[in-house]
Amino acid sequence: MQVAIDLAGVSFGYRPGQPVLERVDLRVGRGEFVAVAGPNGGGKTTLLRLVLGLERPTRGQARLFGEPAHAFSRRRTLGYLAQRAQLATDAPATVREVVASGRLAASGLLGPLRRRDRAIVSESIVRVGLERVADRPLRTLSGGQQQRAFIARALAGEPSLLVLDEPTTGVDAEGQEALAALLDRLHRELEVTVLYVSHEFGAVERYVERVVLVRGAIVFDGPPAALPDVWHDPSHPHA
Ligand SMILES: Nc1ncnc2c1ncn2[C@@H]1O[C@H](COP(=O)(O)OP(=O)(O)OP(=O)(O)O)[C@@H](O)[C@H]1O
Ligand SMILES: [Mg+2]
């Protein structure tokens, strides 16, 4: 197994004496699809930021594809949908323009996209099923469609790692189901490693081989079938 993500003995806090995550060990192989869940303030976003090298561990080591995460040399191949990622709501950009911006950023191009880049942009739009609205302004799409556009933008960079932080906020159950199915397909077809933070992991449970629960530390890491019952019980929302 080629290791994509390797956190070893990682502890982290934003302020001295106030640990947010303690002694985290997390290894994710290339091509794995992993769901991350846990209560508000449990440290999920912080964990993703450590994985991406946007924060540096107070103790321990964070590595990406064998390199120190903060100094990862192929940073452009990291697809990150930050929590509540949004464009300014009145931005006039079309879906295709938004996706193309992902291609530009990833390739470091300054000028117009070349033919191959344009093909990758179109292919990314098709992969997320937005071809029929590709030339509409993003703001005229539903929340779920907008999230798909952001995923397509990440895909246009041909990512080695796709990290999504609660992309389904404000998306209905059907939309969440569709998004989970989409990520499942992408990870199988593109062999991209996917780390997916979701509160509603009922939707992803059937697709992922692995769930990681974060509450100040990793309190569970295993297949969804082995999750403690409390996490399946809707009357205990991630107690
Ligand atoms: N930039 C920051 N500066 C200081 N403290 C922070 C910062 N970001 C997060 N925290 C604190 O770190 C802890 C973990 O926050 P984090 O955002 O990682 O949780 P989360 O699991 O993603 O929560 P949510 O489900 O609400 O998104 C919280 O106590 C939070 O207040
Ligand atoms: Mg968060």
Can you walk through the features of this model?
The structure is a single chain. Strands 6-7-8-3-9-10 form a 6-stranded mixed sheet, with helices on both faces. It has a 4-stranded antiparallel sheet with strand order 2-1-4-5, covered by helices on one side. α2 packs across α3 and α3 runs antiparallel to α4. The chain contains 6 helices and 10 strands, in the order βββαβββαααβαβαββ. It starts with a strand and ends in a 17-residue tail after the last strand. By secondary structure, the chain is of the alpha/beta class. Bound molecules: adenosine-5'-triphosphate and magnesium ion.
Distance between the termini: 34 Å
Write the CATH architecture name of the largest domain. 3-Layer(aba) Sandwich
Give the mean pLDDT: 88
CATH level 1 name of the largest domain: Alpha Beta
Indicate the proportion of strand residues: 25-35%
Q: What topology does this entry show?
A:
Blueprint: E1 3-15, E2 18-29, E3 33-37, H1 44-51, E4 59-64, E5 67-68, E6 78-81, H2 95-107, H3 115-127, H4 143-155, E7 161-165, H5 173-190, E8 193-197, H6 202-205, E9 210-214, E10 218-222
Parallel strand pairs: 3-8, 3-9, 6-7, 7-8
Antiparallel strand pairs: 1-2, 1-4, 4-5, 9-10
Helix pairs in contact: 2-3, 2-4, 3-4
Bound molecules: adenosine-5'-triphosphate and magnesium ion.
Magnesium ion binds next to α1.
